């Protein structure tokens, strides 16, 4: 139960938006209706992230009213936590496929992405964050990152900092990310900027933790406009949990190597490399990686090549140690303990 949604960026669960900001979103119905008409579509797939699934039937109702009677709308019931997580079964069987809540991980005509931005004001929490950031005259500026849900306010955030004298550094990390300044629960490359401090504006605790681990040399300030708190990312507790999992896996003989079949979560080469070098490793393919689904496998430990957040956020819920590929290398003695870092995911498919 994690990933970009609760943890991730592609994800709304993290932000708590569903609970705190019950509101009308802009579902971009006109754009969807236009696509249906242009393509003479009779089958339309709608995919929502977990936090917004309950809105699906009402959106389908609205679309039904705006389209001909021969158009069938189908709601994806598959779990969805990120833009990496398209329902490919439904996508292949529909003329128009709409993915709500995440920004595109890869441009394709097949999918209409409806991002669903947060309506939370960001200025008050940024004002508060100024007390925790190093002042502009004492630093080389500030890196600025946020999640897809707050991306609509990125210019406003930049302007806010610039007006207060900061040199704002931003970049688009890599092709897994849609926007400049965007981070995902598995990718913090946008924070790779020449500044000693980074301001993360967004909800949840998992994104900034990954960010702080990925950039240990930077002062990472979290301005959470959803829960209205400013904190400094502290990775200590998290690191201890990861060292604990590695330690418990050090005596493992039988390893389950998980290859995730979700379109944007497959790291075949990583899985293959482990299998080639460990005759006691078994490849397990699956889409949703959950403790229940792994319980019947009699393994001593697992290594997950799919979504890193499953490993780090849900790790303690699995019946055997669950490691990232980097942690696996430490556990089997290929890499030193000091090499422990956050498992990040680059590229698309
Ligand atoms: S793989 Fe990345 S984008 Fe996909 S759910 Fe996990 S953290 Fe989010």
From TrEMBL:
Top EC class, one word: transferase
Pfam families for the chain: Diphthamide_syn
EC nos: 2.5.1.108
Pathway annotation: Protein modification; peptidyl-diphthamide biosynthesis
Signal peptide: none
GO MF annotation, one: metal ion binding
Catalytic activity: L-histidyl-[translation elongation factor 2] + S-adenosyl-L-methionine = 2-[(3S)-amino-3-carboxypropyl]-L-histidyl-[translation elongation factor 2] + S-methyl-5'-thioadenosine + H(+)
BP-aspect Gene Ontology terms: protein histidyl modification to diphthamide
Keywords from the UniProt entry: 4Fe-4S, Iron, Iron-sulfur, Metal-binding, S-adenosyl-L-methionine, Transferase
Matches recorded under InterPro entries: DPH1/DPH2 (IPR016435), DPH1/DPH2_1 (IPR042263), DPH1/DPH2_2 (IPR042264), DPH1/DPH2_3 (IPR042265), DPH1/DPH2_euk_archaea (IPR035435), Dph2_arc (IPR022428)
Reported cofactor(s): [4Fe-4S] cluster
Family: Belongs to the DPH1/DPH2 family.
PANTHER family the record matches: 2-(3-AMINO-3-CARBOXYPROPYL)HISTIDINE SYNTHASE SUBUNIT 1, DIPHTHAMIDE BIOSYNTHESIS PROTEIN
Role according to the record: Catalyzes the first step of diphthamide biosynthesis, i.e. the transfer of the 3-amino-3-carboxypropyl group from S-adenosyl-L-methionine (SAM) to the C2 position of the imidazole ring of the target histidine residue in translation elongation factor 2 (EF-2).
Name of the protein in question: 2-(3-amino-3-carboxypropyl)histidine synthase
Biological classification of the source: Archaea, Methanobacteriati, Methanobacteriota, Stenosarchaea group, Halobacteria
């Amino acid at each position: 139960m994690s990933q970009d949604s609760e943890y991730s960026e592609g994800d709304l669960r993290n932000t708590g938006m569903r609970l705190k900001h019950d509101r009308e979103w802009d579902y971009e119905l006109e754009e969807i209706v236009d696509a249906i008409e242009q393509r003479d579509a009779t089958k339309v797939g709608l995919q929502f992230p977990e936090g917004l699934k309950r809105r699906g039937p009402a959106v389908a109702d609205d679309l039904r009213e705006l389209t001909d009677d021969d158009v069938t709308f189908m709601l994806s019931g598959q779990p969805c936590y990120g833009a990496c997580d398209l329902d490919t079964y439904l996508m292949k069987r529909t003329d128009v496929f709409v993915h709500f809540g995440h920004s595109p991980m890869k441009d394709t005509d097949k999918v209409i992405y409806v991002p669903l931005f947060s309506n939370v004001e960001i200025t008050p929490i940024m004002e508060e964050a100024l007390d925790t950031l190093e002042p502009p005259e004492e630093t080389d500026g500030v890196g600025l990152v946020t999640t897809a849900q707050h991306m609509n306010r990125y210019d406003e955030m930049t302007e806010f900092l610039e007006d207060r004298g900061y040199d704002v550094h931003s970049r688009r990390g890599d092709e897994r990310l849609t926007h400049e300044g965007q981070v995902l629960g598995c990718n913090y490359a946008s924070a790779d900027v020449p500044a000693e401090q980074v301001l993360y504006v967004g909800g949840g605790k998992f994104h900034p933790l990954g960010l702080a681990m990925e950039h240990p040399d930077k002062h990472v300030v979290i301005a959470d406009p959803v829960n209205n708190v400013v904190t400094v990312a502290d990775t200590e507790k998290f690191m201890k949990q990861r060292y604990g999992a590695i330690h418990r896996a050090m005596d493992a003989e039988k390893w389950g190597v998980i290859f995730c079949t979700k379109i944007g979560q497959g790291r075949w080469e990583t899985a293959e490399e482990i299998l080639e070098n460990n005759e006691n490793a078994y490849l397990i393919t699956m889409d949703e990686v959950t403790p229940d689904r792994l319980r019947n496998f009699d393994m001593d430990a697992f290594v997950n090549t799919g979504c890193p957040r499953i490993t780090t956020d849900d790790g303690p819920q699995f019946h055997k140690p669950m490691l990232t590929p980097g942690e696996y290398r430490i556990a089997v003695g290929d890499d030193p303990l000091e090499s422990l870092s956050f498992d990040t995911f680059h590229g698309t498919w």
